[in-house]
Design brief:
690 residues; mainly beta; Immunoglobulin-like; four-stranded mixed β-sheet; four-stranded antiparallel β-sheet; 2 helices; 54 strands; 2% helix
Length: 690
């Protein structure tokens, strides 16, 4: 590399010759890039010119994925052919790169650890670009046949683990078909282009027991060892209904283990019943216990367990057939309208203060049916849960129906819902423009929210602005006031209250203000902390900002006015390792945001220090929220670590009572805080009445 000359008093232009050898084949030697080479050479000279004339840039959305479409987050971008680094920033909807403006095309080299570099071209009119990176990792596994006489064929695949917290769904990454030679041959299979992380290796073949193995892949080849193949077991049977009639097309699934929950490892085999109701599930290990479940569209699910048996007879109870008709306000049929059928379950819990709370959740069973030409629809009802039937045509207000759970002895038969009426909703129109000049804002996201009756649920409709900034939102419930929220990257969110009689509204978007905050806490707490915020006194987990290791956080383009910030926690309960919890705590602060100005504040930094250890039954209370109250009013909270330790601040001296998600506690669960604060408070949580 040739360094630039030393500075002098004369104003000169300086140039730097860059070492491009790390990039192997020069960019300009690739034929397809030739059409936009000249602009890049001009750009190369410009970049070397006096820094008093910066190169104009524009923002381009950049999406980098692996070969099954998972985002690659830790990537870098370099401008070609000069190989200068391009600024990339993370935003809510992905990553944005600042590329030179005013050239015919822009070439970018995208690099990431554990992946090979890829080159992409950004056309002058392109607002986004996407690249798929090839992973450097691979998996090699060897298979040993059953014996010296038997070989065969083997299907080998590599899949994601199933982890809802990590967002992995078990997607297929790669598969191979291999010929297995009899022993002592070692039959090697190599799977390339495997991104780093944990993957599940699957294998199956005729007459063989299917198997799985978790392999951890890095930046190079991973040796998965040698797998000894074993003879397989078959389970045969038949599926009939409660009238003794055969059921064809039913899905029969057998899984290792005593329950029916998903497992990262284990055997999972399935088959379909034929026209005679018969089925055969192959590739099962010889000495395993299986959980089985059978599903059919017109029948309720059946499940059970299977030991060493090789025969399984299944009886399915006929499901309840539900019918109805979809009509408009004039009673005319509505055709081709979707209806969402969701199964819900309600549970009632009691908190530490004795208050009952009802929680309604969708039980993972959701389907969509479409009305026919005459407006009629039908579906088969499964499971004993409550069922909600909700039409969902745009611009209309659906008449949702809720069906109560079926008892064990309830008549299945056929249920007719009659007519479900789709009423026309209120329409809201308007235009979104820049506050500094009135230019139209295209692609702004709009959300209209209203409340259905006093204390009722919230209704929501969404939309986007057209190129001229105009918008139209249909299907709003007539009568109540509407809260209209407008969002656009680079602008402050704008919230407008729209009166019931208002049909059109114009919204001006400004840049808003900047908020700089600092949250206090231990390294453990800061690593599990996020900040929720919202206008006025309200907060929302839809508005969240991450906290740096130093406790600092920052918001750009914040809507002017009072904004409330709340300290929240994200953690995993050791008792429920597969679940992640979000908890909005008691520590809050408000700040007044002004257009074009920076507002600063701290969160959880004031007050008297209070720290200690919380136990229950003599054992540390780990990864649990403990709340502190004085005189019955909660004031602060803390997240315990693996040793049950906590650290927080309280506003005043006094006897501070502790409570946790484990239930109400006695008055002994408290800390007497003196005027100077308290360290080393040890608290044993016990249920009330003990």
């Amino acid at each position: 590399m040739i360094e630039p000359p030393p500075p002098s008093n004369r104003r000169t232009k300086q140039y730097t010759i860059l070492d491009l050898t790390p990039f192997r084949t020069p960019f300009w030697a690739t034929p397809f890039r030739a059409p936009f080479l000249t602009p890049f050479l001009v750009l190369f000279v410009a970049l070397g010119a006096d820094s008093a004339e910066p190169v104009a840039t524009r923002s381009v959305s950049v999406k980098v994925v692996d070969r099954i479409g998972r985002p690659v987050k830790d990537f870098e971008a370099f401008l070609l052919p000069v190989c200068s680094k391009v600024a990339v920033r993370a935003e809510k909807e992905g990553f944005v790169a600042e590329v030179p403006a005013g050239v015919e095309a822009v070439g970018l080299r995208l690099t990431a650890r554990s992946f090979e570099a890829a080159d992409v071209t950004v056309a002058p009119e392109a607002a986004a670009v996407e690249a798929t990176l090839k992973a450097k990792g691979s998996v090699r596994v060897s298979f040993l046949a059953i014996d010296e006489r038997r070989g065969g064929t083997l299907a080998v695949s590599l899949k994601e683990t199933v982890d809802p917290v990590a967002g992995t769904k078990g997607r297929l990454l790669a598969e191979r078909t291999a010929t297995v030679e009899p022993r002592p041959a070692q039959n090697a299979v190599v799977l390339d282009d495997v991104p780093p992380g944990d993957w599940v290796l699957w294998w199956e073949g005729p007459g063989l027991a299917a198997g799985t193995k978790v392999v951890r892949v890095g930046e190079a080849r991973t040796e998965a060892g040698t797998v000894t193949l074993l003879p397989g077991r078959s389970v045969e049977g038949a599926v009939r209904d409660d009238l003794g009639l055969v059921v064809s097309g039913a899905r029969v699934r057998l899984r290792t283990g005593g329950g029916l929950t998903e497992r990262p490892l284990g055997t999972d085999r399935s088959a379909r019943s034929g026209s005679d109701g018969g089925f055969s599930v192959n590739g099962l290990p010889l000495d395993e216990t299986f959980a089985w479940d059978v599903t059919s569209p017109e029948h309720e699910d059946a499940r059970g367990s299977l030991g060493g048996e090789t025969r399984l007879e299944v009886v399915l109870v006929r499901a309840q057939r539900v019918t109805g008709r979809l009509v408009d306000e004039e009673g005319l049929p509505v055709a081709d309208a979707p209806l969402e059928v969701s199964y819900t379950k309600s549970t009632v819990t009691t908190d530490a203060e004795g208050h009952e709370r009802r929680h309604t959740s969708v039980e993972g069973h959701r389907e969509q049916v479409v009305s026919r030409e005459d407006g009629t629809f039908s579906f088969f009802r499964h499971l004993p849960f409550a069922v909600q039937v909700a039409p969902s045509r745009a611009g209309t207000l659906p008449e949702a129906r809720v069906l109560e759970p079926l008892g064990d002895d309830a008549e299945r038969g056929e249920l007719d819902l009659g007519d479900l009426v789709l009423r026309k909703g209120r329409m809201l129109t308007g235009r979104v423009a820049r506050a500094d000049g009135g230019a139209a804002v295209e692609g702004a996201r709009l959300e209209a929210v209203w409340r259905k009756g006093v204390g009722g649920s919230m209704g929501t409709e969404r939309g986007f602005t057209d190129p001229d900034g105009t918008f139209r939102i249909d299907g709003i419930l007539p009568g109540p006031e509407v809260t209209l929220t407008v969002r656009k990257e680079g602008f402050a969110t704008k919230t407008v209250r729209v009166a019931p009689e208002t049909e059109s509204v114009d919204v001006l978007l400004g840049r808003g203000g900047r908020v700089q905050g600092r949250a206090c806490g231990t390294a453990w707490e800061l690593s599990h902390m996020a900040i929720w915020y919202g206008p006025g006194g309200g907060i929302s987990n839809q508005n969240i900002v991450r906290v740096e290791a130093s406790g600092r956080f920052e918001l750009e383009n914040t809507e002017p006015g009072p904004v409330t910030f709340a300290r929240s926690w994200r953690f995993r309960d050791p008792a429920q390792p597969g679940s992640t919890f979000d908890w909005s705590g008691q520590v809050r602060a408000s700040v007044e945001v002004k257009e074009g100005e920076t507002s600063q504040f701290t969160l959880g930094c004031e007050g008297l220090p209070l720290s200690g250890v919380v136990t229950r039954g003599g054992r540390p209370v780990t990864s649990e929220i403990v709340a502190f109250s004085l005189g019955g009013s909660p004031a602060t909270d803390a997240l315990t670590d693996a040793a049950g330790s906590f650290s927080t601040r309280v506003p005043s001296p006094g006897l501070w009572l502790l409570s946790a998600r484990g239930g109400a506690t006695t008055s002994a669960a408290s800390c007497e805080v003196p005027p100077g604060g308290l360290e080393g408070c040890r608290v044993e949580l016990t249920p009330s009445g003990q």
